[in-house]
Design brief:
Number of domains: 2
CATH architecture of the largest domain: Alpha-Beta Complex
Order of helices and strands: HEEEHEEHHHHHEEEEHHHH
Strand content: 5-15%
Number of helices: 11
Helix content: 40-55%
Largest sheet: 5 strands, antiparallel
């Protein structure tokens, strides 16, 4: 759905939303907050955010968020959006719809340190999330994954793409990284916790006073290795991650040298996951963006410096 089609289709969407959720009136005028491959995000005059699915992936995400949203809201409070309106895929919403009250704040800039207070808040949030009872999370429908194995699954997808985009020396360094990552026994951790799995800047909200005001996108909350959650915040810089880890420990989170090691390895390979997603969805723009990030990322940057 392109931007012009969205604008031309807003009246139809508004009518369908009014019929499905009359309690949300007034629905018009709908504002377009943004769009991605999976969803179009709309806002009602009353401050309700409605995500309208644009792909089967969105439908699956919405169903998962609806299933686990109440459990997370009960234990994590209003930092996470609690899904309150849900439409399964149907004639009006082919890939479903999910709605929740809008959280305040703006997403911090990618790669720029959003401040020590924000780092401390995020570290405390992660500690609380990771301390949720795993058995209760399973019972609520939170799925369980092996983060190391899942990233390894991206190798056969991304290497052929990189083979035609990287110079021979750079490709060799990438292939060597994959070999050591696959054989790395230190990545086999028994630690399991409820994890967000995508704590990058676009899923975080910062208040006007510089505090963490919200964490978005609970679709990929899973029971997994908690070290994985430290990979995306690394893009905010070394000072930020040091403050975050200190707050995480101060709030009861366990983070030792083995956890730090795994977190760094997940950070090194993070963009491979993004590239695999873009390849699988045939998104050329995201493919090129992911390749650029890999070129500037820690694997090739560290190899050039050595």
């Amino acid at each position: 759905m392109n931007a012009q089609l969205i604008q031309g289709d807003l009246d139809r969407l508004a009518t369908a939303i009014e019929l499905k959720f009359p309690q949300l009136r007034p629905v018009r005028p709908l504002s377009v907050l943004g769009r991605g491959f999976r969803s179009v995000a709309l806002e009602t005059p009353g401050g309700v955010v409605l995500r309208v699915g644009q792909s089967p992936d969105a439908a699956n995400d919405y169903a998962r968020e609806w299933r686990i949203g109440r459990f997370l809201a009960e234990h994590m409070g209003d930092t996470l959006p609690e899904p309150r309106w849900y439409a399964e895929p149907g004639a009006d919403f082919p890939y479903g719809l999910l709605g929740y009250g809008k959280l305040v704040g703006e997403t911090p800039a990618w790669g720029a340190d959003p401040g020590a207070a924000f780092a401390r808040d995020l570290g405390a949030f992660m500690a609380r999330l990771h301390q949720l009872a795993v058995d209760e999370a399973r019972a609520a429908g939170v799925p369980e994954v092996d983060s190391h194995r899942r990233l390894l699954g991206a190798r056969d997808v991304v290497v052929p793409v990189l083979a035609v985009r990287l110079e021979r020396a750079a490709l060799g360094r990438v292939e060597a990284w994959w070999a050591t990552f696959a054989a790395d026994e230190r990545m086999h951790s028994a630690r399991r916790a409820v994890c967000h799995h995508d704590l990058w800047h676009d899923n975080l909200l910062r208040s006007a006073s510089g505090r963490l005001s919200g964490v978005l996108d609970i679709a990929h909350v899973e029971i997994a290795d908690p070290a994985h959650d430290f990979s995306a915040p690394r893009y905010f810089g070394d000072a930020f991650i040091a403050e975050l880890v200190a707050a995480y420990r101060d709030t009861g989170g366990a983070f030792d040298t083995d956890d730090e090691y795994r977190a760094n390895r997940f950070y090194e390979g993070r963009e491979f996951g993004g590239l695999a997603w873009a390849v699988e969805h045939n998104d050329e723009r995201e493919i090129e963006s992911a390749v650029e990030k890999i070129l500037r990322g820690p694997i090739l940057r560290a190899s050039e410096a050595s």
